[in-house]
Batch of 3 targets.
Target 1
Amino acid sequence: MVGYGIQSMLKDGHKHLSGLDEAVLKNIGAGRELSAITRTSLGPNGMNKMVINHLDKLFITNDAATIVNELEVQHPAAKLLVLAARAQQEEIGDGANLTISFAGELLEKAEELIRMGLHPSEIIIGYTKAINKTLEILDDLVEKGSENMDVRNREEVVLRMKSAVASKQFGQEDVLCPLVADACIQVCPQNPGNFNVDNVRVAKLVGGGLHNSSVVRGMVLKNDAVGSIKKVEKVKVAVFAGGVDTSATETKGTVLIHSAEQLENYAKTEEAKVEELIKSVADSGAKVIVSGAAVGDMALHFCERYKLMVLKVSSKFELRRFCRTTGAIALLKLSRPNVDELGYADYVSVEEIGGARVCFMPSCFHE
């Protein structure tokens, strides 16, 4: 049966709303519901939310940007608030919760005005006047000196950072702000607009407290060195993304062995090949080998013989940061690196913090 009017134009299952009660007030209701979800997470004493996304992954967070990104919001009016929160997060990096909560309050007051008999266009005119007045007042609230502030001035940066940090960790801002400022100033390029957030990393270690936190100029790996050598100074570093193992000597062929003597000779040949490769790395001047995959027992034995410190970095992202820190170039297979492919570190040492052994590489940030 063919419908008439708007029914004939839209597909089955459509919803058609019109008028104040049906369309406008239902849209306002959707926005208020989303605002109510995030509002209780606002501020330093806000509560955490447990969110399960479409992949059944569990999030426990009070960050509104994470909450709205993981929620599958389908209502078109509520989606506008989600887009506003995302824009705020991308532009400023903070204030997503305030954006949604404030929008919810504006919608709630607008609903009261609509029920009094005002037309939505009249309410919009009023809100536009309020925006213009707010922009005038905001200029007076800017902290003096912010327009031409030196982002490398630690005291100035800490002063302007406190309110943002206090909104997440109330009472700890005096401890955290100097640490954040020091870390960011150390990696700040000549043009602050090119600042790379990925250059500042947080290594979380169980066993201490917030007051034990410190800033390390360089890099910290949350694992122990593979071999027995735990400390070296002023060294060149070779990075192998494909791992340091006997697989480097394998070929795609078939070896037919008739006797135990032939098997022994084959094993010796493989052993000699591994030693040759490790010796070539040592002869290049490298004192530290970083592996992006497995480290074989035979290869480790020869690394110990030639006094090479061996580190294993499983994450490819961490390996990329390591190369950026030391100035090394990651090689795909175990071979003798060229001089320009080696990185440099002032010193690399393994230290124990809170029961965990971690690898420090301070003062080696590669400009």
Target 2
Amino acid sequence: MEHLWLWLLGALAASYTFVFLILKNLNQWWFITRHGRRYNLPPGDMGWPLIGTLLSFLQAFRSGRPDLFIHQFAYKYGKIGMYKTYLFGSPSVIVTAPEVCRHVLMNDEQFGFGYSKATRILTGGKALNTVPRPEHRRLRRLIASLISGNEALSLYIGHVEGIVVTCLEEWASMKKPVEFLSEMKTVAFKVLLHIFIGANTAAFIDRMEKLYNDFHLGFMSSPVDLPGTTFSRALKARNELIKIFENVLKEKRENLKNKVAENRKKDMTDLLLEVKDEDGQGLDDACIIDLLIGFFFAGHETSAHSIMRAIMFLSENPETLQKAKAEQEQIVKARPADAQHKGLTMKEIKQMEYLYKVIDETLRKTSLAFTLSRETKVDVNLNGSLICISNS
């Protein structure tokens, strides 16, 4: 019996050693073996094989306090502003010190956009975040005027106002509390669908929103395409979205061919089909689809969170709310009594000087992206730590 207890204690000790001293350090050992010891990395935790520290990252993110993930490093290793880890399939360095962040984000010679493998796969090979820099500049020149500026906004004012007013009326008629962020995500999605592809049926909107929910979750996952995984569901959602957009483009090309589109308002996809660069080159269907997928992804969550934050800040600052409301009321009172158009106009939006300040202050106080990712182009010395080139 005594030998059995000794054997069990030995097995437990061996298991502990294997799990916490070998497996837990495998990522770090692999990095050192691959790159040698010339890289003086900051302290930190590279986590378990393959998944690294992804589970603790997701746990903190889903708790509503993503900053807890960073606090864990600060608690263990001190508030030094730099920590090594392993996230989304790659060895990484987390930088939190403002002056170091500024250096990383503003130094284009040493750093480039650094998206996870899952993000690059899901956004597609012709998206803004994956194309080479010259093509990135070309695409930005082509689409900048289509998605921003007064001309673009004037095309969509009526669409946005109609959707928002309808949703507000629906909420007012409800006899239960409204979960504001969830509702704003739906509003943002309705607006985006209407602006980008002219869709407004409830069944189609519901289907697209479900696909994008699966698609969105894949960005915070390891790029493992196995049945039942988050990444696998995201890939399936992307393939479904591609089919939908292919059908949209096919229908719109037929409309252009038959001149059906001349008698209706154009949406973003119509404009993308027509746009040409200085050499007369347009966008192929694969590029348009990747751009649309990216637009929906970028505009959906960020718009909803920005509006939610603005409402929160206004409710916490009643004087600011009253000034913003008074400005809106003054604009409405200034409308001619015989005005046929009852909705917002571009001229009225330009008169909302105080509201613009409220929006700017909301964006200043709100961090819409929890992290910004960069890749090293060369070996970089940051605060005494030598960080190796990403593709070495």
Target 3
Amino acid sequence: MDRIAGIINLDHEQDVLDELTYFRCGAAVPFAGRYRVIDFTISNMANSRIESIAVFTRRKYRSLMDHLEQGKAWDLDRKRGGLFILPPDWNDPTDISRGDLQHFHNNIDFINRTLADYIIVSGSQNICNINYRDVLEQHKESKADVTVIYKEVDELYSEHQHAHKLDVDDSGRVTGIHNDLQNRNIYMDMYIIDKSLLYNLIEECIAHGCSHFFLDGIKAKINELKVHAYEYKGAHSLINSVESYYRNSANLLNHKEHDDLFREDTPIYTKVKDEAPSKYSHDSNVTNSLVANGCIIDGHVEDSILFRGVKIAKGAVVKNSIVLQRCEIDSNAVLENVILDKNCTITHGRTLIGAPEKPFVVAKQRTM
């Protein structure tokens, strides 16, 4: 079996989820009731039998490190390989690298020491359930230098505006990488590359004063390298704004959307937290909602997502909202089109209402 190593590159991802990224990077943002955004990328790699994974992170990574720990949830706490969290550590006084090439340069030992022949590089903002072994098979069959992964979306949303798009010819070769607003071939910030080629391109990019490996090492060399495309056809969400986070979270209340992402044969793993099942009183009324364990519900919940340990008091109403861990909604409070970060308290009789296209967001540990 061909060996693959994984790199999750968070360096160029911006903290664009407003209050949700005040105190954490985007990869550590909770999603879908009990997961974090990065869980999907790591689970995809683990399910593809990738046993050595590095995470490049630059800012606000305390919460991420606390969540990932030693990688036990993904069976990555092992003697050989495993999960490596690699925050900034620029100790080489001769280093002239910039941007995410600093991470590639200063952690080049990870690439050199891995026994893998291929490297899969991914961000965290594209949530999906993909088998990278299928990508590798196409990569080998096409004899490509690089294989980039894309999704042809049915409808373009605001989050796709700044995403890179691909032009792909009939042979599967990528002929253009750009930001055409009408192109529906969304580049998913994932590519597979031969280990030796990755090493050579890193050295070349640094020597030429570049700062972004994908843009300067692959996109800029589209006519020199044999870059092929792999079309992913499964469930997909791009999370790069509060609006995209809210809408794609709400989509999971649709059973088909949920089941397409959370497949039984390739499960999504996360940090285990042992809590009791949720408790519903006789006064509670819960419809079309995703409720994690440990919740106590005495009020009305409709079309909403509740994370672990949420308490909804009698007379409280929660509609079209996302309530993160350990929030408390007191009696007769009303939430509609709201996102509450963790450990918030909404006091008796308080009403918070946002718009479906612009949800009201409350930063964590607030009392209102």
